[in-house]
Design brief:
single chain, Glutamine Phosphoribosylpyrophosphate, subunit 1, domain 1, 3 domains, asparagine synthase (glutamine-hydrolyzing) activity, asparagine synthase (glutamine-hydrolyzing), ASN_synthetase/amidase
Length: 587
Amino acid sequence: MDLKSGLYGVVRLDGGPVEAADCAALGLTRATGSFVAAGVDRVDPRAVHRADAGGCCCILLGYLDEPQELAVRLGLPVDSGFALLAAAAHARFGAEAPAHMLGEWSCLVWRAEERRLALMTSRALRDPVLHARKGASVVLAPSIHALRRLPWMPNDIDPEGFAATMARHRAVRPFNTRSLLRGVEALPPGACVTFDAGGTQLRRIGAPVAAPPFAGSFADALAEAETLLRQILRQRLARHGGLAVMLSGGLDSSTLAVVAAAERAAGQRLTLLTSAAPEESGLPDETPFARIVADRLGLPLTLVRPSPQARLFRPSRRHCLARNDPTRATWHHLYEAFFVASGAAGHAELIDGSGGEYTFTAAFPLATPAYRLRRALRRLRDHVDPRRGAPHWPEDGFNVRLAPGLLSGLPSHLEETWRRPWSAEPAFDPRGRWGYCQGVEKLDNSPSETMIGAARIVPPFRDQRLLQLFSGFPARYSNHGGASRAPARALLDGRLPDSIRLRRSGLAFCPDFYPRLAAEAPEARTRLLAFRRAGIGEWLDLDWLDQRLARLDAEPRPPVAEAFRIQITANVAEFLLAWNEGADALE
């Protein structure tokens, strides 16, 4: 069995013996008692930490970022292991422990005498924690495909769970706990769920509170931010002996590459990877910009292209097996190529510049009187012009085109959440603090292992310490000196040429997306007959998919949102087809 990284366990809360079949389904060696659990990390075994003492077993998977500080608070030696610290933090703080344990991790705490099991996650999700309870038995795993092997687990997809996994973030914010299987729930980031004879209790830690107002100058703020970013990348370099960095030559990735290169110690490796257009295609890509950065840093640049066998409309089985829900990854074929390149260079982590817009490269405008006037005029224009109308429920509430029958029976809570206040155009108060920007929680919801056995995708910009530091800065620092993304531009001043530092926009991450979309559409249409025979039309609007795929011949460049919806609908159909064929079809 190809185990996904994460926590696995079978627990009997009544003291009875665990079922051998349950253990076998999850790939666990059966124990004679009522508790068996393990942590698995396919690429970084050192990330598995375990402590057994006094009837308490704690397994922590991942890393604590400030362990010495936590140890002092808990009155423990500063060299205490991560699992010991986690157990002590849970004993001291209970369900609030995740708020005190900085880092990215998942954790299990079993207290045998109390017959109590606690599962915890860091505020930024590292590995999924899926759990289910049947009477006195609790099972947990990071993979829906492992849990569906349980002999008592129904294999039929739950319609409400499917709808929730396909919904846009606006309809399931802040986190979707539903899964494809009825009775299986996902533990949210920054949460603790406790199981005992009295029942099940879930508690999420509160939203982060903005730091006190920063009193220093812009230069002071930049110095503190750079020092912290250096610390973050220094920690990751030290843990793994090197890093791969996705480099586009844009502000986000260039900032990370510059800082990582500055912090790289003797013997540590740094590999720069960039997405390149197919050879001799003539398509524009980011290679010239990435090469400028690589040359300035004195590092080689590796060009990454998808395999010729990769298909936009047909994710690999390996990709589907790593997912707990049907994939919504539009560039899965390109990311697989990045994983191959990272693995070839021997790296366990692939640094991604996602999320820079919440700190160093924030491009939110300042809500000045002039801005408010322009926004009011845009609203008036949108009201008059029906083509610019606001999104509608349920048409715009999902990443795919759902079947009409499924749309007619949607759970009401999705619409209720969708209709809660939502600002599509956030702006900074020029007299206020930076704070935590809308949508930042989406960064926390994504696990870092997206391909079994491949390097983790790590966005340093979602580090909670960095977000907390920026939250106290004056909002006007985002546009200091009249320049947007001011912190990143200032940090790169004198380190990279202005052709990089002053870039206003970038090119497509996947240079050949549209040519592939049109070229592969006829092949994708041939899959529709298999989809219909498998009953996938109960879940997805296959007539709509057929029409949109056919239209790509005459209209090869639809609006990007439409293109993504076509692709994702086909991808989800492939996932459902494999699901119907059974778990073995995915392996």
